[in-house]
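Before relying on records like the one below, remember that each one covers exactly one chain. Contacts with other chains, cofactors or solvent are not represented anywhere in the record.
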Amino acid sequence: MEMNRINAKKLRLEADVVMVHDVQPASIIGSRPNGGKWLWQCHFDGSAPQRRAWSVFRPLLEQYDAAVFALPRFGRRLSIPQYVIQPSIDPLSEKNRELPPREVARILQALAVPQDRPLLVQIGRFTRNADPLGVVNAYRLVKKHHPVRLVVAGTAGDDPESFQIVAELRRAAEHDPDILVRDLPPDAHLQINALQRAATVVLQKSVHEGFGLGATEAMWKGRPIVAGFAGGLPHQIVYDVTGYTVHSVEGAAFRVRHLLNNPEVAARMGAAGRELVRRQFLVTRHLTDYLALLIHLTSGSAR
């Protein structure tokens, strides 16, 4: 809060609309000048905050003219209007742009990931919430019936929990050369792109999740998804059309086996997923939503 008071003196806050993102800068509302609309955007699931933290934060939040959440259930009861705008992906970014097969092969070779078998890929944070160890257990059930390889990739950062999970994953991989653990740098966008494009099935077996766009990114590459029933994942995946949401390790293994046994189903789901992303989760739709909200806020009809 002190840093926000310092920053407020350095910023020009006179504007028709000021948008503030997430918790850290939220208290800058205390330096709000007269005029203009102020909007707070939440990028996580705020439905179950710690009570003491919420008692401090809520009075700040209610000084805004409106709040934006990715899903209705991510919000809280507030005295200000709330709007829903789902996040999106940029199809021209390094993480999502088209890659020719030769470039995919080159990147996978640099990552020491062979392409001689069906590839199961999970990309995400090395946290308990993302359940990478559950993915390993699902892979083991699948491997009893199919000669597959698993890649678990992500960024550990400086979180002690992440270091512990990476260590557990590496121990699991010691006795199975087909489990490949890849700790990627934060800017490994091309590597993620290539891994998703090379995957036969992409997993996102989260047990707790915000909205998260990993599933959407994989669907844009035409890949079927098997994901946990958590956060925004059920809102990105159309069940039995673009992929499956599951509640257990056994459920994930069953759905992966189904896709491996039915490649025509996997191909159809991949095509349906890409079309879904084109219609609902690209930046063009996101821009339209923002413009509509800005018009609404500045037209005098809001609040």
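The mean pLDDT is 94.
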